[in-house]
Design brief:
Layout lengths: L4 E6 L6 H12 L2 E4 L1 H13 L7 H10 L15 H10 L3 H16 L7 E6 L2 H5 L5 E6 L2 H14 L6 H17 L12 E4 L5 H12 L1
Parallel strand pairs: 1-3, 1-4, 2-3, 4-5
Bound molecules: cytidine-5'-monophosphate.
Cytidine-5'-monophosphate (C5P) binds next to helix 2, helix 4 and helix 8.
C-alpha cells in the first residue's frame, strides 16, 4: 500500500507560506489545500447573509453546514480585507474549527485526483490537523515586511489600501491568531522554521526543498 506523504506549511499572514506551499505541491505533483480559504468562505457567507461573524452560534451553524463542493474558492472577494477580518474572527471560534477538522484531514488522507501526497497550508496544520505530517515547515517574517507585501499584493490586484491600516489589521489578526485559546498560531515542536524576511520566493523554495529532501 502506498503511503500518502503529508506536508504541513504553517505561518502568519503574508509570510509567503501560500506561494511556497503551492510551489512545493507543483514540484512534487501533490494536491494543495489553502486552508485559510475555508475560514474565508465561512466569513464571507456570514457577511453576505448580513450576519455578524462574531456571533458564535450563527458562525458555528454555517461551519457545520459548510459544503466545500459548492463553494467558489476562486471568488476574488474571498481575498478582500473585509472578508479577511471576518475570517480571523470566525477562526477564533472553537466550534467553527471543530467543524472544519474533518474536511482538512480527509484531504490529507485521500488527496483529490489520486495524488501521492498533499500539501496543506494554514496556521495549525502541523500542530492540530496533521500532527503526524511527514514534513512540517513554519514560515515567518517580520511584520512590517509582511504588511508591505500585503499592500503590494492588493496594489497588483488594483485594490487601493492605506498601508498604516493594513499594518494595524495585520497586528490585530496576528495577535488574535497567536493568543486564541483554540489552535493558536505557533510552530510545532518538530517544525523547521523558514524566515522569509530577507528571502525571495526562489530562496525560500530552495530551503524548503532541501528540508523535504
Ligand atoms: O491564511 P489566510 O490569511 O488566508 O487565513 C485567513 C484567516 O483564517 C487567518 O486570519 C486565520 O485566522 C485563519 N486560519 C486559521 N487556521 C488555518 C488557516 C487560516 O485560523 N489553518
Amino acid at each position: 500500500m502506498s503511503e500518502i506523504v503529508v506536508i504541513a506549511v504553517d505561518g502568519p499572514a503574508a509570510s509567503g507560506k501560500g506561494t511556497l506551499a503551492r510551489r512545493i505541491a507543483a514540484e512534487l505533483g501533490y494536491a494543495y489545500l489553502d486552508t485559510g480559504l475555508l475560514y474565508r468562505a465561512i466569513g464571507l457567507e456570514l457577511l453576505r447573509d448580513g450576519e455578524d461573524p462574531a456571533d458564535a452560534e450563527t458562525a458555528a451553524a454555517h461551519a457545520v453546514a459548510f459544503d466545500a463542493a459548492t463553494t467558489d474558492f476562486d471568488d476574488p472577494v474571498l481575498r478582500d480585507e473585509e472578508t479577511t477580518r471576518a475570517a480571523g474572527i470566525v477562526a477564533a471560534n472553537s466550534q467553527v474549527r471543530e467543524a472544519l477538522v474533518e474536511v482538512q484531514r480527509r484531504f490529507a488522507a485521500a488527496p483529490p485526483g489520486g495524488a501521492p501526497g498533499a500539501v496543506l497550508d494554514g496556521r495549525d496544520i502541523g500542530t492540530v490537523i496533521c500532527p503526524e505530517a511527514d514534513h512540517k515547515i513554519f514560515v515567518d517574517a517580520d511584520i512590517q515586511v509582511r504588511a508591505d507585501r500585503r499592500v503590494k499584493e492588493l496594489q497588483d490586484r488594483g485594490v487601493e489600501s492605506i498601508p498604516s491600516r493594513v499594518l494595524q489589521d495585520m497586528k490585530e489578526r496576528d495577535e488574535r491568531d497567536r493568543t486564541r485559546s483554540v489552535a493558536p498560531l505557533a510552530p510545532a515542536a518538530d517544525a523547521s522554521v523558514i524566515d522569509t524576511t530577507n528571502l525571495n520566493a526562489d530562496a525560500a523554495f530552495a530551503e524548503a526543498m532541501s528540508i523535504i529532501r
